[in-house]
Amino acid sequence: MGSEAQVQPAYWVADWPRYAMRALILLLFVASILKLSAQSFSPFLYFQF
């Protein structure tokens, strides 16, 4: 039980670049969708990005 408590944080620290890349890709994906929808529906919103 004690050893598992010590291994878990190390796993998250070692694995954070993969989650960071996933979050970055997801953020870019959402931003591009918002840009496209704003560009097609409202040019004013598109210029705010």
Automatic annotation (TrEMBL):
Origin superkingdom: Bacteria
Protein name, UniProt field: Alginate biosynthesis protein AlgI
Residue ranges of the TM segments: 19-38
Keywords of the record: Membrane, Transmembrane, Transmembrane helix
